Amino acid sequence: MTITAPIDEPEYETLAQDTHGKVLRPGDDDYDEARSIWNAMINKEPAVIVRPAGAADVMTAVAFARDRDLLLSVKGGGHNVAGNAICDDGITIDLSSMSSVRVDPTSQTARVGPGATMADLDHETQAFGLATPGGVISTTGVAGVTLGGGIGWLSRKYGLSIDNLRSVDVVTADGELVTATEDENQDLFWAIRGGSGNFGIITSFEFDLHEVGPEVLFGPIVYPYEDAADVLTRYEEFTRGAPRECTVWANSVAAPPLPFLPEAIHGTTVLILMGFYAGDLEEGEAVLEPLREYGDPIADAVEPMRYTEVQSLLDELYAEGARNYWKAPNFTALSEETIDSIIEYANQSPTPQSEVLIHQVGGAVNDVASDATAYPHRDTEYIVTVGARWEDPAKDDECIAWVRKCHDALAEVATGGTYVNFEGDREGREQNAYSGNYDRLVELKNEYDPENIFRQNQNVKPTDWGQYQ
Hints:
It comes from Natronorubrum aibiense. One of its GO terms (molecular function) is FAD binding. The protein has 469 residues and is an alpha+beta fold. It folds into three domains: 12-94, Uridine Diphospho-n-acetylenolpyruvylglucosamine Reductase, domain 2, CATH 3.30.43; 101-211, 2-Layer Sandwich (Uridine Diphospho-n-acetylenolpyruvylglucosamine Reductase, domain 3); 215-422, Vanillyl-alcohol Oxidase, Chain A, domain 3, CATH 3.40.462.20. It has 14 helices and 20 strands. Strands 12, 13, 14, 15, 16, 17, 18, 19 and 20 form a nine-stranded antiparallel sheet that branches. The protein has a five-stranded antiparallel sheet with strand order 5-6-10-8-9. A four-stranded mixed sheet has the order 1-2-4-3. The model has no long low-confidence stretch (mean pLDDT 93).
């Protein structure tokens, strides 16, 4: 498939007339805002950006791109670290206008538009004391986090986002709108649950909801980094026996200037255990007590707080506008070698905002068979994200090199898998992301998108993709 030059005036006018939402070109008032995304490393200029008002506009835009051999990208929340949402010279479908959330408290389900963020979803569901697993930053798009799997504070208790997905409406590569569920278009539904946008554009998600909050137990326990080896060993032991209501993540990072931390440690490397408990608060206090009493922590700010507050508490630390690069190997255990590598590279961090973050998984996530959904990593107990974050473009090479060196050291004892939503490279890691399900994904790509129209992602290439290039 040949990527053509920018769209000429008659074609643009046709697209604008056929679209109920906005159609933007370079120079239009909202164009630069529409092409901006969370990761400031990504600076691309689509020939045209379509902001659909509904599914009909998405169908129109897909057909327009397909008929003109235009590169196509899809922007939900724009939070993907690899920058898949935006393309150069092609067409970007910006779904931000389709952000509605409709909750049915009787059936405990929610209908969610593809432009909704976690803040939109949590605001509506928590009005009824309900929630579904998703991202832990409120500006994260529901669509992107779901299509890659969907890991959050509730996942150990209720599974991944995809494990709570009842149905989707999806615009396929031929521009048709179909519904996929466990009973209808089952293969497509299987592929969408972890296939990372390779099979179409979702125009509506239907999720199961669960009773959560409104208050949960949450907060950081901060340790001096000279104690990191002992604390991480203790952390591994603790998390192995923790109930599913409990999730604890461990972050090696420079201490931020938070009011409960002594000024003397601001900017120095510390180990932060982020404890979460979704259940009876007194029970949660008892569950987390062994972590809070271990060693000599600098600070302990675990306390009851509203679930919506938990979901937005980290927003400022991960705000839009910085440059970011991540890699994230999976682990079934945290060995002494893994802990040593984390400590070694955290002490070499290139910027204060960079981190090595351990996400505890397991629990309900691992109740599902590895081939039940496209997301295959059902043996993963921990994901270790090596994340560089910086502002100065002159530091690009240094920060990227640090992430890759740390990743390579960790990968020696990792499972070989990676969580697709945490992967900073857009190409070259597909086999690691999709693992044993990759071949089936290729077969379904051949069926649903043989010309690889949906390729701005961690791409599953169709078998005959070469003939279209």
